[in-house]
Design goal:
Layout lengths: L8 E7 L8 E7 L6 E10 L2 H8 L15 E8 L11 E4 L9 H4 L26 E3 L2 E3 L11 E5 L3 E3 L6 H4 L5 H13 L6 E5 L3 H13 L3 E5 L6 H4 L6 E3 L8 H8 L6 E4 L4 H9 L7 E4 L14 H4 L3 E4 L7 H13 L9 E6 L3 H9 L5 E5 L3
């Protein structure tokens, strides 16, 4: 096959032309990678709720036309000037937050918030020149989270592509590039429950179930799942959930319900909904003296967190995390190896699969609460 390096590639992409309207499969042009960039042939996507959230553009800055997608797996097609870490043919997981390897955050063992490549939901262009690599008939199409994987080919900064074991099945491990790692890491790396402790998880979507899975792996004695959708409760048992709370079933604040269930509050809480009300509930439901709450969900631009200062003075701790405190290029390969050694399950998160031409079905499944993760097969 002739090399496409250095050339513009025409391929299919699912373009979001405006908020909330079905994605349209279009032929787009994808420019070659520039300095410190790589062009990737995407083979599999998994639909994340964040894609839906920014597609709906409710409570967030609308930016269209845009190519969404950020949880995926693919193969490097070509590399730009100065790229030495990757070469054509390498298997990679694109990631919405990067790791430049040079900044203070990348050198810190306590942070994964790269100063250069920290996730930015409003930026729709590449850092190198402030322009897009996507276009159609001369019209620029914006990027999303530096990844834009709902395209057969995409261009990302080299620091946002984690090289992984080529033997790993991309249709499975692609879910590690966002939701599953985010939830597990929020519990294992940030909340850090001790064996036998109690954990409450707010929101039983993929990230929340992954947080439950992390609690199970840590040996939590009691895992309380909190969700407004009663249909999620049975599925959650597979991820270690022992108790279920639907706030609609109670005439008092859910934090009071949980405190009564647990003799004063849970040891750890992880919030995975993006609702500022749930964030407050998660913090206020942890036990005084040692309780730790971790915020994971993305709030709206105008949301505000309010709680009485005594909740802090009574020695409750509030933390936040992005991507479960994993450094993508350092830690994602390790996560993949854990999967290969059967130390980490990902198949139970995958409930549906659709061809790329039917990508809007994946959105329907997620909006109706029918799927955990739906795999989108790009070549189908």
């Amino acid at each position: 096959m002739p090399s496409t390096a250095g050339q513009v590639i025409k391929c299919r992409a699912a373009v979001a032309w405006e908020a909330g309207k079905p994605l349209v499969i279009e032929e787009v042009e994808v420019a070659p990678p520039q300095a410190n960039e790589v062009r990737i042939k995407i083979l599999f996507n998994a639909l994340c709720h964040s894609d839906v959230y920014f597609w709906e553009a409710k409570g967030q800055t609308p930016l269209f036309p845009r190519i969404l997608g950020h949880e995926a797996g693919g193969v490097v097609e070509s590399v730009g000037e100065g790229v030495t870490e990757l070469k054509p043919g390498d298997h990679v997981l694109p990631c919405f937050t990067g790791e430049c390897g040079d900044c203070r955050h990348c050198h810190s063992e306590e942070s994964n918030l790269c100063e250069t490549l920290r996730f930015n939901t409003d930026r729709g262009v590449m850092l190198n020149d402030g322009k897009t690599r996507f276009s159609k008939n001369g019209q620029p199409i914006y990027h999303f989270l530096g990844t834009s994987t709902f395209s057969e080919y995409t261009v990302v900064h080299v620091g946002c592509a984690a090289k992984i074991n080529p033997e790993a099945p991309l249709d499975k491990v692609c879910v590690l590039s966002c939701g599953v790692s985010t939830g597990m890491g929020a519990t294992l790396n940030v909340a850090k429950p001790e064996k036998g402790q109690s954990v409450a998880v707010f929101g039983l979507g993929t990230v929340g179930l992954a947080a439950c899975e992390g609690a199970r792996m840590a040996g939590a004695g009691r895992i309380i799942g909190v969700d407004l959708n009663p249909g999620r409760f049975n599925e959650a048992k597979k991820f270690g959930v022992t108790d279920f709370v639907n706030p609609k079933d109670h005439d008092k604040p859910v934090q009071e319900v949980i405190a009564e269930m647990t003799d004063g509050g849970v040891d750890r809480a992880v919030e995975c909904t993006g609702s500022f009300k749930a964030m407050i509930q998660a913090f206020e439901c942890v036990h005084d003296g040692w309780g730790v709450a971790v915020l994971v969900g993305v709030p709206g631009n105008d949301d505000a967190f309010t709680t009485h200062p005594m909740n802090f003075l009574n020695e409750r701790t509030l933390k936040g995390t992005a991507f479960g405190n994993y450094k993508p290029r350092t830690d994602l390969p390790t996560q993949v190896e854990k999967y290969m050694k059967k130390e980490l399950e990902v198949e139970k998160f995958i409930t549906h699969s659709v061809p790329f031409s039917e990508i809007n079905k994946a959105f329907d499944y997620l909006l109706k609460g029918q799927s955990i993760r739906c795999i989108i097969r790009m070549e189908a």
